Amino acid sequence: MKKTQTNKLRFFLFFVIPMCLFLFNVSCGLDTVEVIEPPISSIRPQPEITSVDDVQDDINKEFVFTTNETATYSEINFLGTEIYYRIYNNISTMINERSALINASNTTSTSASSASKLINDYNYKKLKLPNDADLIIPKSNSNSNQTVTIRLSDVENSYEACVEVNGNYLKGTVEASKPMRYTAPVLTFNFGRDGDKDDVPSSGDSDFSYSSSGTNIYYVCLFAVGTGIDIYYSPQYSSICYLGTVTINSDSENN
Fold first, then answer.
1. What is the share, in percent, of the chain residues with pLDDT greater than 90?
2. What are the start-end ranges of the H helices in the chain?
3. DSSP character for 186?
4. Per-residue pLDDT reduced to its tens digit, 85-111
């Protein structure tokens, strides 16, 4: 009697339970979570801003990164890559928030939610275009990675603010491809110059982390995010990619 019960138990453990699990998985399928691959930073403005004594030459104020478009997705429609920024006039605040976001993107348990932290917790805004449209690097037609170069402000007789993709202006001309602030109306990053869109950030601006102890030196941090929509039309984001920080001096004609 004891041997019969033992055989039944073995049969149940080694055949019935595994068969039930197999049939359940075949009929229902295991949930798979697709995640958009993040962009890849190539060249950051140098030197990295870590103190008020750090000075960047005009030639080193470019952001260069590579989109990440070689992956294939079954339940996500990859749309392209967006660039988010925030303006600070207090270096300590900038460094603390920048570090928190970089840590979130580099930590396995928080990387998937780092875009939400960037947008919702730290209130980073999308770059805009002169026509008030959101600035997005659209996906390539060949699923190939693209090299993106961004310069936020103009340098007289040397450099123009613009966004280039694979060496071409994003929107065909330099004027149409200038990165603009997330304001109404859109404003440039040529803080304090004579143009009608060259306003200095104001304490009420949604893209500006204002400090009463700040100076006329502004720090602009950029992050890139791959974006798309899933089969339920819900927005999907990659983890964030830190692109760098530039200084803009509102007292300088060339910032």
1. 75
2. 2-11, 17-28, 91-106, 114-116
3. -
4. 999 999 999 999 999 999 999 999 999
- The answer to whether 183 touches 126, Cβ cutoff 8 Å, is no
pTM of the model: 0.86
End-to-end CA distance of the chain: 91
Query: Quick one: pLDDT at residue 44?
Result: 93
Q: Report d(CA 233, CA 39) in Å as an integer.
A: 22
Q: Are 44 and 63 in contact (CB under 8 A)?
A: yes
The predicted-structure confidence for 113-134, as pLDDT tens digits, reads as follows: 999 999 999 999 999 999 999 9
How many angstroms separate the Cα of 214 from the Cα of each of 33, 92, 199?
Answer: 43, 10, 17
Q: What SS3 state is found at 170?
A: coil
Q: How many helices (H) and strands (E) does the chain have?
A: 4, 12
For 107, which DSSP code?
S
Among the listed residues 216, 226, 225, the one whose alpha carbon sits nearest the alpha carbon of residue 248: 216
